[in-house]
Design a protein that fits this description.
Number of helices: 25
Radius of gyration: 31 Å
Strand order of the largest sheet: 1-2
Shape: elongated
Distance between the termini: 46 Å
Length: 561
């Protein structure tokens, strides 16, 4: 039977029926001890099939008595906050945001609860999928409404922040506690990081904390997979004959990669590398979009971001051992303006020469300094020479202090770690940049190299050639021999007849001879192995990144959001 075109018997009625009276009456009865209608109200609010009209009516009534919704109604508020408002009609969304603003204004005790509710929508919702007869919970990666849903979340946060100016202070711990486990899917991590970066735009006071949180999580991914693991996974996924690859692959120079080579856009074979790749793409694009407006660099904005990233670098990147990719965030930013690169080099130099800093951080700073000078072709020769002058002067001063101490200097990495890393920084930089120093005027270039007095460094009792990595030592020896700057082979041959230097045990006691060289993780800006970030790696081979290639906005529009 049909009535007005509707199958009356087979179509359920539209839910507009309410039980228990209005909210004001229900709250009054509950206060007097009659909780029947109160429990019924919570049950109706929790109905998964609740309609838009019902939600709007309830919220309007709750707004009229928001001052009565004190802490004793905590469970009722939790039920309201679980209402499925995201993705509903615009009328529901607007009514819900109005309710939120009224609630946090009148009852600030619920501020954190409201913030947690909004943040819970920062990742795709969980859905149950059946694989092989087994139900598995996974993220709904195909939800086409994610851009709209995320927009609504950020509208809600901005509204709350407008009514409660201290929102950012309470929000940061919530963002940290709700960060997805790093083993979650790339999509889930990508969405969450995207939303955190969006928050940093309209809540700039917590941008540094947001960046520290994101980069800290990315570092956990970065150190959990080595360069070798990534390379092996890629080789196994796409078998190919590697031609001309030797141990000196560490020293791939400009001619090894063509500027016109096609970009690699396929997914990473290693699952951890794939997650890190997606996050690096989002973060690097964010950096570019913050610093550039219509392809023009905003100097003051860039400086502010540099200060925030430098703070994060000191706190979490410099102190992390053997990270391979995350440090490229600061490298990329420094490529925008020479003054930034010079400021970063000066910062590293101050850490290296500071005796009050822990030796391990001084060594790490030397590693970053040498690697940046060697790899960053946006750093001109004049800056490279200025930094080499500082390093070499400090090295000679260190040698003099050892010679004048009256004690027999010994080759001990534990005692002289900053010295050896500074020497390796000099050798590594010369390997990469000697051609640029010599081209144009060979005579003046050779005079400069002679002025560094490298012979004294390699011949000193501390014997840096014995400690530096064999690959660095052999390349440095070959280059200095070619230009007759210093002859290293006699020392190298003598060193080869002895074991590696003593490394003192951190637990104390006698030193033990070991085959572990702590300088082996010296090269933080070695080639960038991730696929989607490869466009950002090109500038370290002499090519500045193409500002039209990828932006934070195009990521949102095309691939992710």
């Amino acid at each position: 039977m049909e009535v007005d075109g509707r199958d009356f018997l087979n179509t359920p009625p539209v839910k507009t029926v309410r039980f228990g009276g209005n909210v004001a009456e229900i709250l009054a009865k509950h206060k007097q001890g009659d909780s029947g209608d109160y429990e019924l109200l919570k049950h109706q609010l929790a109905d998964p099939e609740i309609k838009d009209a019902q939600i709007i009516n309830w919220l309007q009534e709750f707004r009229s008595c928001v001052t009565q919704l004190t802490k004793e109604h905590e469970q009722l508020i939790y039920t309201i906050l679980r209402l499925p408002w995201i993705g509903r009609s615009q009328a529901v969304v607007e009514e819900y945001m109005t309710f939120l603003s009224n609630l946090v204004s009148a009852q600030t005790v619920y501020l954190c609860t409201c913030l947690k509710m909004v943040v819970s929508y920062f990742t795709p919702k969980r859905v149950m999928i059946c694989e092989g007869g087994v139900n598995i919970s996974d993220s709904d990666d195909e939800d086409e409404n994610l851009p709209r849903n995320f927009d609504q979340c950020h509208q809600a946060l901005q509204l709350i922040n407008r009514y409660v100016p201290s929102t950012s202070r309470f929000l940061m711990p919530i963002l940290q506690n709700n960060f997805p486990f790093i083993q979650k899917s790339s999509r889930t991590l990508e969405c969450y990081v995207h939303n955190l970066l969006r928050i940093s735009i309209y809540m700039p006071s917590i941008r540094c904390d947001v960046l520290e949180l994101i980069i800290g999580k990315m570092l956990k991914l970065d150190v959990s997979v080595s360069r070798l693991d990534i390379e092996e996974a890629e080789e196994n996924a796409v078998p190919q004959k590697a031609e001309g690859l030797t141990e000196e692959g560490l020293f791939d120079m400009d001619e090894d990669v063509s500027a016109d080579a096609p970009m690699r856009t396929h997914l990473m074979a290693h699952p951890v590398a794939e997650r890190l790749d997606s996050l690096m793409e989002v973060l690097l694009a964010y950096i570019k979009d913050i610093c550039y407006v219509n392809d023009c660099l905003c100097v003051e904005t860039t400086k502010e971001l540099y200060r925030d990233l430098l703070s994060v670098f000191d706190k979490v990147i410099l102190t992390t051992h053997a990270s391979c990719h995350v440090q490229y965030t600061l490298f990329y930013l420094c490529s925008f303006r020479l003054a930034l690169a010079e400021a970063f080099l000066d910062h590293l130099w101050k850490i290296l020469q500071s005796p009050s800093r822990p030796a391990v951080l001084r060594q790490a700073a030397a590693g970053y300094m040498g690697s940046l000078l060697a790899r960053a072709k946006f750093v001109p020769v004049l800056t490279v020479r200025a930094c080499l002058d500082l390093l070499v002067s400090w090295i000679h001063g260190y040698i003099e202090s050892q010679d004048s101490s009256g004690k027999q200097a010994c080759c001990d990495i534990g005692l002289h770690g900053p010295f050896y890393t500074a020497c390796q920084a000099v050798f590594y930089t010369l390997i990469f940049r000697h051609k640029a120093m010599l081209e144009g005027n060979m005579k003046k270039g050779l005079e400069y190299l002679q002025s560094l007095n490298l012979e004294r460094i390699v011949m000193c009792q501390l014997n840096p050639l014995k400690v530096c990595l064999p690959t660095v030592t052999s390349m440095f020896a070959a280059i200095t021999r070619k230009y007759q700057v210093v002859f290293c082979y006699t020392i190298i041959e003598r060193n080869n007849r002895h074991a590696l230097p003593v490394v003192r045990s951190s637990a104390g006691g006698d030193g033990v001879t070991t085959n572990t060289n702590p300088l082996d993780s010296f090269f933080p800006f070695d080639p960038y192995l991730l696929q989607r970030g490869s466009i950002f790696w090109l500038f370290t081979l002499g090519n500045r990144p193409n500002l039209d290639t990828l932006t934070y906005s195009t990521i949102n529009d095309n691939n992710t959001f």
